[in-house]
Every structure is written in C-alpha cells, then in structure tokens.
C-alpha cells in the first residue's frame, strides 16, 4: 500500500495492493490495458470511480455503460462512449461518471490478468470505497432459465469455497468470500424491481465449459449421462445453483484488495435438462440483459444515496 494515501479522507476504504516491489518501480505499465503511470494521469482519469462492473464480453460492457449512463442521467447524445483501452484488443474499458465497465474474457486466467491491472489502476488512481460487481451468464441447476443467481459463496469443482493457484511451484489456497451485505442489498433491489426472479446461492466456478461442467456435448467425454446427473445432483445438494468460470478468482482477488464484491449471473439453461444453448439469439440476448438491469438499478439507488449524504453534509 502507498503510505502517502493511507489516511486520506476520514473512514474511506482504499484499494489495497500487497506487493512491496511496486514501490521500487519508476513506472507501472498496465500492459493489457495500454495504460501506465508515466503515460496517463490515472488519478485524474479514474479517481472518481466508485462502481466497477466487469463481464466477459467487450460488446456487453459497452452496452452496460450506455445503459447506466441513461439510468444516471449522464448520457451525452453527441458522444459515443470511447473504449479507454482502444490501443489494445485484449480488454475493453468504458467510463461514465463514477462507473467503470471492463471486459474480462472467458475463464480464470483471463479475468485474473485483467484484475491484477484493474486493482493496480484503482490503487494508483487513489480510488476509495469502490464496489465491484461481475455481471455474467451461467448454467443453472434446478432453476427456471432466466433466474439471476447472486453468489453467496464461490466454490470449486469439488464444492469447496476456495481458489487454488500454483505459485513458485507451491499450491496457494485463498478464500472466495464475497460481501454478504452487498448480496442481500442486490436481492432486495431485484425484489423491488419485480421483473425477474433472483436467488442468493452458491456458484460453482470451473476451469472449462465442457467436461469441467459435466457436459455431454464436448469433443471428448469420458462419463455417462447418469454420471453427469449424479454430479449435478451432488452440486445441488451442496447448495450450488449455477456454474460459471470466473467467480472464484474474482472473489479472492477483490477480497485481498479490500473491495466490496458481488457476482450476479443469469442462468441461460437448466443443466439438469440439457447442455446445449439452443435458445434463439433474441431470447439469449434478452436474458443477458437481466444482470445489467439489476446492477443498473442498484447503482442508481446507491448513487442517489451518496448524493443525498453529500448534500446533507454540505448544509
Ligand atoms: C460464463 O459464460 C462463459 C462461457 O460461455 C464464461 O466466461 C462464463 O463464466
Ligand atoms: N456459462 C457457463 O460457464 N456455463 C453455462 O452453462 C452457460 C454459460
């Protein structure tokens, strides 16, 4: 952590990094964003960020920023929202007011690289009190397709709430705890919206979309239909209601940085009934809007509360 900024503001919470080597570097190049501490004034560009939304597809994250701009009354009819990372095609990043929207690609390695650079960016920009939410898609277990799962615990493929990574040849195990109060606030927000069903439940994070999620339709499959159903039934019994591919490392890295974090994913199908995403493009597209609608509404409500608090503080 940069001690110079430790006590800025009264009780505000900074974005922590835990890496003594960073202090010895003259500049920090955020290579996959095409941004850097010498080339960009990160505090001026990003210092006001309070909400970060991340999701797999660059297209969806652009559509999210357009949506949230409308929700917050910040849309500019004359301007397109520029991709802040236009100099690279690895990730896309958009900003409007206090909201940053960033794509992360598919799978743990992809989101992990993005989060290292995003967390450093927020740290270098001296951001405080940041809430971060992953909005995404998933396969459901025992839920009507279109249900939103707000993750209680992200569990691995053995249903344990941990993220394991080999560092210097050793297995390092990290916790995947998410913010329980934030999850509850999001559920209440969904109930108030009353447009679709949301539940708080465990999410299984896997390393693969096919065999890793017990699908029968990959290029390879070494188990039977019965084995698959058995595994999904065990997942259900352990409290898992959806399966995706990024939540564990997302939860563990955000926790290390002290960010309030949540995972909000729509279920596109019920995995006990099938494997293929064969719904029409329009139906799948409409379902993918749901996390965006819920999180958009949440951010709008929270921003109004922040504005009210600031307003009453100025009186
Ligand atoms: C959900 O959807 C993607 C796979 O189709 C993956 O990124 C995930 O977590
Ligand atoms: N994303 C996943 O990871 N799995 C699914 O079944 C659907 C979307």
If you had to describe this structure to a student in words, what would you say it looks like?
With 315 residues, the chain is of the alpha/beta class. The protein has 2 domains: 19-129, Rossmann fold (3-Layer(aba) Sandwich), CATH 3.40.50.1580; 136-315, Nucleoside phosphorylase domain (Rossmann fold), CATH 3.40.50. 34% of the residues lie in helices and 23% in strands. The chain is built from 7 helices and 12 strands. The protein has helices at 42-46, 58-71, 108-124, 180-193, 225-237, 247-256, 281-314; strands spanning 29-30, 35-36, 51-55, 93-96, 99-103, 131-140, 148-155, 162-167, 170-175, 198-205, 240-244, 260-270. The protein has a 5-stranded mixed barrel, surrounded by 4 helices. The longest helix has 34 residues, at 281-314.
List keywords for this structure.
two-stranded antiparallel ribbon; binds uracil; Rossmann fold; 315 residues; binds 1,4-anhydro-D-erythro-pent-1-enitol; disordered N terminus; 7 helices; 5-stranded mixed β-barrel
Strand order of the largest sheet: 6-11-10-7-12
Shape: globular
Ends distance: 34 Å
Ligand types: 1,4-anhydro-D-erythro-pent-1-enitol, uracil
* H/E topology pattern: EEHEHEEHEEEEHEHEHEH
The structure class reads alpha/beta
Number of strands: 12
CATH fold topology of the largest domain: Rossmann fold
Q: How many discrete structural domains?
A: 2
Return the CATH architecture of the largest domain: 3-Layer(aba) Sandwich
Largest sheet: 5 strands, mixed, barrel
- Please state the average pLDDT score: 95
Helical residues, percent: 25-40%
